[in-house]
Specification:
With 173 residues, the protein is an all-beta fold. It is built from 1 helix and 10 strands.
Length: 173
Amino acid sequence: MAATDHTTPPAPPDAPAPPSGGAVPYWRRPLVRSRREERCDDTPQTGGMRRFAAISGELTGSQRLWMGGNTVRPGEASDDHHHGEADSGIYIVSGHPRFTFLVDGREESVEAAPGDFIYVPAYVPHREENPSADEEAVVVLARSTPEEIVVNLRDLWDTTGIPDAGVEERPAS
């Protein structure tokens, strides 16, 4: 049987130093509940959808995570955008959203349904579409940064805010 290492793991790089004088160390911080009425839609927005924040640095003291959600109404689509350095995880609550992005200079889409998860890598331009005529698309979002990052774009070929991206050739019309 292997020996168990009981040494204390190092604190995260940006964690506060363990306090002296009886204050609470970072690993004993309280859990925080975010109730529906405490959610905030004062977060960066993209046309065609409505985002809200539930967990963020500002709302809950999170240091590495942003969570919230969005709704896309029937027949609507978000504007093209990306989330900078934040990886995104998306859980489909209801509806059948479609996520559109570029592959080899042409638009590709991923169709989703309730219970599906979608991973959107950092800096990937995309848009969320709701092809339904009568059902909202509702999702839960998780990002790898404590505050929401949204870079709204002219189109999926726009590389604004993407480090070292240069300019991509658009397909001929």
